[in-house]
Amino acid sequence: MGEPAPQRVKVYRLNEEGLWDDKGTGHVSVELLEGNTSVGLVVMGEGESPRPLLIHRITRDTTYQRQGDDTIITWTDPEIGTDIALSFQEVRGCSYIWEQVLHVQESSGSSPRIRPISGPPQSLDHVRSLGMSSAMDDFDTAGRYEEMVSGLGPHMEPGSSGSVELPEPEMASLREIARALTEVSLFQRERLAQQLAQRQGYLTRLLSVFRMCEDLEDEESLATLFTIFKHIVLLNDTGLFDLLFDEAHVMDLVGALEYEPDIKPEQRPKHREFLREQAVFKEVVPISDPKIRSKIHQTYRMGYLKDVVLPRLLDDATFATLSSLMLFNNIEVLMALYQDPDFFPTMFARLKAAAPGSSEWADLVAFLQELCGLTKHLQAQQRNSLLLRLVGLGLFEVMSAIMQRGGPEVKLKATDILLSDVQHDPSQLRAFLLTEQGNELFALLIKALLDSSDSGVQEQVLEMLKMLLDPETLEGSAEKDKFVELFYDQHISQLLAALVQAGDAPYSLGAPAPNTVGLVVDLLCYCTVSHSYRIKYYILRNNVVEKVLKLLRRKERWLVVAAIRFLRAAVQMKDEFYNRYLVKNHLLGPVVAAFLANGSRYNLLNSACLELFDFIRKENLKGLLAELVEQHWSQLEGIKYCEVFKQMHARYEQNQDRVASGNGGGGHSQQDSEAARAAHDAEMLARQRAAAAAEQRRRRGEAEVDADEESYFETAGGDSADEDEALPAGGTVVLQGGDSPGGGGLPGLLAPLVDYGDDEEEEGDTLPLRAGTPKRGSAGERPGSPPLEKRFKAGGTTGGGSGSGGGGGGVWPPPGSAGGRGSPPLR
């Protein structure tokens, strides 16, 4: 019978992502390598000019396996450190190559029975020079597959899978066990883990060998055992983890992992000593179920192994598996405690009875913090039930006591607990803060925000206040009215007082820390963007913008940028209410001065100012644009390193050209200008009246806003003749506390807006409201926010929305065009 032809195969290589890369199709044969001294597998590609796709030396230590209906041979190549797979076209061809590989492994250590059939033996160099695979089989098979089968050893059957069998756990076989675990391929990991878990007492005997080697101080065997147990962990099998972290095995496992070969004996960590003597389990509330306690211990040891013992050696998959097991254990413990009817009442009873500042009190708060932190991993319904139960047992009352009498460390835990509850449902804490006892907690939170002794507490309180003041989470108008009114009437004044002190006497004794000032400005920015008329009138009545801009004189550059960020938040609202206020008080001047004082330095302050100016230009905020050009162009025109100011001046000139063309040549420019001012004054007067009426009705308990009041900031203003008649000849209406100068009178217009209490004492700082400022342009142009029509419209035929060339559809690539990724085909 003639020699079988080279077998047709596909070559696959496992990449770093765990996927198989197709390296091509060719013919495999067993050839002599490197001067006829070794034998290997050679795969030559197909085509007119074949090239070698694979050259692999067959060794006795390499473990080969058959899979996929006996058509796939796989192994881990030690030279390239990855898995290789050959997928054969026929089962007979796979069996033929398989038997030759086994025969070479049996013959290693003695001269292989190789005999050239005709002519001299062909080396790999000769094969490459020919550009083709060998035409003959260099093995002594007499050309017959049956003779190869008869030459097999008694311990291996033809077509066997080549499964790994772990040697018995003895000191003499430690090296073989380590080699089997080190060289195991991905295909055999699960089977090897099953052997370790299911063989009777295998792990127990292996750990007893460790204790014996430690008693004998056999350093070489201990280093081998470290390798063995490290690779057992890296098998990443959950069933095996249950055995390894069992009470009977975990200490010996940690002990074996102390003997890392790269660490000197005197520098070895003492993990067992730490776990036995220093890692003390504090049971602040008695847990009656021993299974829960055992699960807690197991979770702690998993975390210790993951984070302390093997942090450098764990791969990503094992690290993720250990983290998931810890999370599942924690959830199981949490639900078991929730189902215990006595556990949580006992915990809160101890919290209320413990002396503030005692160690028991601190331990109970820490336990409650950890418990609330774990609730975020529960399902929404379970998390809601658990938090409602904690609130019902007095969670917020306990947090009030902690914020009032606790130290910085305990306060940090308390704010973390409150934040966990607010992140789930802000309405629970919001409803509590509206009560008399909750108002005390609200004041404590504001005090903690202004206390610079612990920046961690400040950051958490700021995040909490943002969630509580978020209008999207406010359920109804009644709750929104009450809570927002409580904040603006009783608490925001404390924040503004700290801001004033930071601007007037920044470095005096008792002045707020820079970090505190930054957090206050951040909260004001959030309120400016999120709230409507309340923050608007608060800013106007208390000159908030002017007080914030005093921070431009601070030496801390990031605080200067924070002040500009607040101004940017007001400008981005594109509300003429803010714009006229900024223009009338020339509040862009300090920003320009800070920008010029920064010079040519390219830093965050420079970028923030340029972005603000460019935003005004892009949005064409005409009043602010005219203020910048008319008041500060002489200072800005010399800046040439960017195009912002050049473009800004061009936009201003365009606006002026439109005004001139609208005047029809300028014959009635003076008359139109006066009419424009009168129209602005009338518009502002109408808005003030609407706001005052809405506020008075709200205080009487009527509906918050109707359709007209809801849109009074967006409307174009009043056009009634009565308002025009009420205007004085100059066109300016000054809205002070008394009657209006037009004779119609608005007695007490500002007083009923918001009850600010002590505003009369700060009359020197209070800016009188003026209904509008003189407008540049004709009466036909009204400033305001961009029209509502500037929205995305549903286009009928926009930019190739239809047709075959739009790219919306596509065709899947033909099979095999994706680079051959995926599992090796079985056929």
UniProtKB/TrEMBL annotation:
One term under GO cellular component: protein phosphatase 4 complex
Location relative to the cell: Nucleus
Residue span, PP4R3 EVH1-like domain: 7-106
Gene Ontology MF annotations: protein phosphatase activator activity
Keywords: Nucleus
Compositional bias of kind Acidic residues: 756-765
Residues covered by region (Disordered): 657-827
Gly residues bias: start-end ranges: 796-827
InterPro entries: ARM-like, ARM-type_fold, EVH1_PP4R3, P4R3-like_central_dom, PH-like_dom_sf, PP4R3-like
Biased composition, class Basic and acidic residues, residue ranges: 674-686
Pfam name, any one: PP4R3
Serine/threonine-protein phosphatase 4 regulatory subunit 3-like central domain mapped to chain residues: 177-654
Name listed for the protein in its UniProt record: Serine/threonine-protein phosphatase 4 regulatory subunit 3-like central domain-containing protein
Organism: Chlorella vulgaris (Green alga)
